[in-house]
Write a structure and sequence with these properties.
Layout (H helix, E strand, L loop, with lengths): L5 H10 L8 H4 L2 H11 L6 E11 L2 H9 L4 E9 L4 E5 L2 E4 L4 H9 L2 H8 L2 E10 L2 E10 L4 E8 L5 E10 L2 E10 L10 E2 H8 L2
Parallel strand pairs: 4-10
Antiparallel strand pairs: 1-2, 1-9, 2-3, 3-4, 5-6, 6-7, 7-8, 8-9
Length: 204
Amino acid sequence: MKQLPHRTLEICLTLAVCAAASAPALAADPVCSQITSVTQRLWNLPFHIYMTETQTITNPAMAKVAGQIDMGGTKQSEEISTGKSIYVLNRGRWIDMQTSFAEMQKDKDSDADSKKALEDSKCQSLADESMYGQPAKVYLQSNPGVGIATKLWVSKATNLPIRTDTNTDQGPLKILTVSRYEYGGVQAPAHAITMKEMVQLGQR
């Protein structure tokens, strides 16, 4: 199985969706179509995501190595989309990814392996719940081909995502990413650097 590139995978997990907003197989599924309709709205909409990621490594030998390279355990992170640009908070620095979610969708659609995996997604509508004090519609999207299952809460008032819980199963590595979405007063972070500049700083 060919996996999605790490950064692309991470952002897809954040969005809950990798939702193949235009994939024919998903469009034919009414529940997947509802998810697609919601997530497409995020492509050009400013929002701020606060994430908690917990990595569990079940292989003892791998767990030991992972601890030496700062893997495993629980970490906090953030992402901002202005609608035109994506920014990722990494070790206290904001990185300008120099792309947008709309551009990422174009890249995803051009990759045959990614497109095939997304077309294999399964979607379910679950019972309504209250999340962060808001009545919400709840969906579950699973993608066995890439080992991802995401629970998505969508505000009934705004029809926008307010939380996603994404479970990623990569064999001995299990990842739970809980993401909270906010939409008010979103601005590009000051003093953001490019990924190239981030790599150069790491080499010093």
